[in-house]
Amino acid sequence: MENIKISENGKKTFMSKISESYSFTYDDISLLPDQISEIEHRAECDTSVEFLGLHLSLPIIGSPMNTVVGGRMAKALSELGCLGVVHRFNSIDEQIREFSENGMADSPFKCPAIGINKTTDLERLKRLADYGVKIVCIDIANGGSKMIEEFISAAGNISKEYDIKIIAGNVASYETTEFLIKIGVDAIRVGIGNGAMCSTSVKSGIGIGQVDAILRSLEAKNDLESDVKIIADGGISTPGAMCKAVALGCDAVMFGRVLSGTEESPGEVLKYNNQRWKKYCGSASFAVKQDKKNYIEGEESLVPYKGAVSKIITEYREGLQSSMSYLNSRNIKEFQSKAAFVKLTSNSFNERKPQI
Q1: For all residues of the chain together, what is the average pLDDT?
Q2: For residues 95, 97, 101 and 103, what is the CA-based torsion angle, rounded to 10 degrees?
Q3: CA angle 49, 55, 60 (to 5 degrees)
Q4: How many CB atoms sit inside 10 A of residue 287's CB?
Q5: Do the strands 60-62 and 83-86 form a parallel or antiparallel pair, or are they unpaired?
Q6: Residue 300: other Cβ atoms inside 10 A
Q7: Does residue 159 sit in helix, strand or coil?
Q8: Which residues contact 193 (CB under 8 A, 6 or more apart)?
Q9: I need a labelling partner for 225 at 20 to 30 A (CA). Which of 6, 99, 139, 188 fits?
Q10: Are 108 and 134 in contact, with CB atoms under 8 Å apart?
């Protein structure tokens, strides 16, 4: 048996196209509590970060989905020291009203999403810049596209004149992260195929484990000695997963489903089977199709009504502070420098879950 070899990379067989490395998710790793902590209470841990000119009290960004972040959610998140990206599935006037009608006209936290149409989205960008927006999110599925390079080039004069910071993505590899860094974006959304309402992997076969995607992107950032911000986008459903993303080295995490169903998320509260619900849609689902485009990579669902978003943010802040206290870390940079991980078997993962 010891002389039998499974096909290796580089051999002229179909297996040469398959990477020999494993693709890890948040559930495949765990932080190792190997520090002697001097922290008496988790409240001593400072979860704040500097992000594209903003001081965030917690590195959380609301995803630009039409059932997650409208003006009301953006306002609520800003008051909690987090950032919300208002979705682009509306007209320019409607998008601007989302901010103005929620008291954000003068807020540095107003961050809208745009597409990459060199006619309509350049107009949107110019109108938003005139309105005082300083951060925009180019919201497309594949950040590794020449079309995004062409759009950023076309938008260069506007971006420079108004000093606009650009968030772009999504990517899940070293090569596509390198591509976005070289075309000059300021922050990169990392993650393909792992959102709760994303069916990209199922329908296109594209995507890797989120931890693997983060590591590849961080390696590109390190090799290029870039100060680009890395945003973990997708796959987070618990405070523990957020802690792992931040500990790995991400500058922020992006939430979709976590924030859906809250009082401040767009949409009415629905009553069904004596319970309260809200609609939650993926950005490419039928409910948000626009311009008769043939999107196939989003799903729709109802999620339980969760009440005020402040409760969610508090839960995630306390989770991160608790994780930091285990690693004797009083700030995020210290937390990231001390973080060490172990790989989990399926049994060790199951052992760590509450046995109810």
Answers
A1: 89
A2: 70
A3: 60
A4: 16
A5: parallel
A6: 14
A7: helix
A8: 172, 200, 201, 204, 206, 207, 208, 234
A9: 139
A10: yes
Q: Which of 137, 198, 243, 281 is catalytic?
A: 198
Report which of 299, 287, 289 is spatially closest to residue 202, judged by C-alpha positions.
299
Say if residues 188 and 171 touch (Cβ distance below 8 Å). yes
* Angstrom distance (rounded) from CA 181 to CA 221: 8
What residue type is assigned to position 233 of the chain?
Answer: D
What does the block give as tokens for 342? 């172990």
How far apart are the C-alpha atoms of 337 and 132, rounded to whole Å?
36
Q: Residues 3-12: what's their mean pLDDT?
A: 44
**3 state SS of 210:** helix
Assess if CATH 3.20.20.70 describes domain 42-342: yes
Query: What's the predicted TM-score (pTM) here?
Result: 0.88
DSSP 44: G
Angstrom CA distances, 129 to 30, 108, 344, stand at 42, 12, 47
Q: How far is CA 238 from the centre of its chain?
A: 14
14-to-3, 4, 19, 22, 223 alpha-carbon distances in Å: 21, 18, 11, 18, 31
Kindly report the number of other CB atoms within 10 A of residue 249's CB atom: 18
Coil, strand or helix at 166: strand
| Encoded tokens for 13 | 């067989």
Query: Is 198 known to be catalytic?
Result: yes
pLDDT in tens, 114-171: 999 999 999 999 999 999 999 999 999 999 999 999 999 999 999 999 999 999 999 9
Return d(Cα 319, Cα 336) in angstroms, integer.
Answer: 15
Predicted local confidence at residue 350, as pLDDT: 81
| Residue 232 pLDDT exceeds 50 | yes
Classify burial at 331, counting beta carbons within 10 Å of its beta carbon; exposed 0-12, middle 13-18, buried 19 or more.
Answer: middle
